[in-house]
Amino acid sequence: MEGQRTPEILDYRNKNGHGWSFFKHDGILRSINTTPEDVTEMTRKVQKLELRDDDVLVAAYPKCGTHWLWEIVTMLKAGNSEYNKKAKEIAMLGMPKFERADELPSPRVLNSHLNFRHLPEKLVEKKIRTIFIMRNPKDVSVSLFNHLNGIKLSFRFDGTYSEFLDLFLEGKVASGDYVDYVKDWLQVKQDNPDLPMLTLFYENLKKDPVKNIKTVADFIGVPVSDELCEQIAEACSFKKLKSADTEVKEHTTNPLSMWKEGRQGVYRKGEVGDWKNWITVAQNEIFDNVIERRFEGTGIVFTYE
């Protein structure tokens, strides 16, 4: 995609017209609502972002617990269980507001859905503590479908879950291929032994939040009491976070404007195993075959219930 060459448009809409058209930029699917020049400029700005020695980065594919973990790490850094009023989006690398990350006081907790190669160049050199969280792909597919089906924006998905699942399993969604994304981050850990990196599973954090919050605290070098870990676990329970998120949006100038009526925010259920309410027996067999084949040799074992 050198110079001003027009990129090839990949039309991944199905026979019902549901889906998206993309172009590829550095191996990543990008919406045709943007341009290669815009993507190049955004990537350059992210890569040149000045990092601070005490920054922490949370990395995850969408709907894998990014908001949740960001709140937890922010509370640990602050030493209390109070919600941070600064919008998480300002600290989200690659999003429209991320250039305001310099406004955030240290210690910052940055977060991103980007691939490693598109993140700040000094990440390894500065040994920025990085936490990668992943979630079982069945629940990811259901959560991502509901997110994209619930918004009013141009990249929404108006089809059924079955239609979405076909695209998800082929990596033809706006977030890119889930398996490729996870494998890319697993490779990062192997290729960069000097990068302090902690890998977490959404399901483990859900099952035993206090234990996993203590693990995160140890990793980022924050001394904590069992009492504080319990307070943070309570404050970051799904119900409490959903309530806090709604409260913040109700005090913004354009509350919930991106969501269809009755669909209000990024927090839906947050359950482990909700996929059983969506995926048929036949679809589950296909899903298992795809995941088993594509994750073979990685040692990754997901928890589905």
| Total helical segments | 10
Count of discrete structural domains:
1
Mean pLDDT: 89
Spatial ordering of strands, largest sheet: 5-6-4-7-8
The amount of helix comes to 25-40%
Order of helices and strands: EEEHEHEEEHHHEHHHHH
Largest sheet: 5 strands, parallel
Number of strands: 8
Tell me what the structure shows:
It is built from ten helices and eight strands. It is α/β, with parallel strands linked by helices. It has a single domain (43-294), classed as Rossmann fold (3-Layer(aba) Sandwich). The strands form two sheets. Strands 5-6-4-7-8 form a five-stranded parallel sheet, with helices on both faces. A three-stranded antiparallel sheet has the order 1-2-3, with helices on one face. Strand 2 (21-25) and strand 3 form a beta hairpin. The termini are far apart. Mean pLDDT is 89; it is low at 248-256.
Mind sketching the topology for me?
Layout: E1 10-11, E2 21-25, E3 28-31, H1 36-47, E4 56-59, H2 66-78, E5 92-93, E6 109-112, E7 129-134, H3 137-150, H4 161-169, H5 178-191, E8 197-201, H6 202-207, H7 209-220, H8 226-235, H9 238-250, H10 281-294
Helix pairs in contact: 2-7, 3-4, 7-8
Features:
alpha/beta; Rossmann fold; 5-stranded parallel beta sheet; 3-stranded antiparallel beta sheet; 10% strand
Summary?
With 305 residues, the chain is α/β, with parallel strands linked by helices. It has helices at residues 36-47, 66-78, 137-150, 161-169, 178-191, 202-207, 209-220, 226-235, 238-250, 281-294, and strands at 10-11, 21-25, 28-31, 56-59, 92-93, 109-112, 129-134, 197-201.
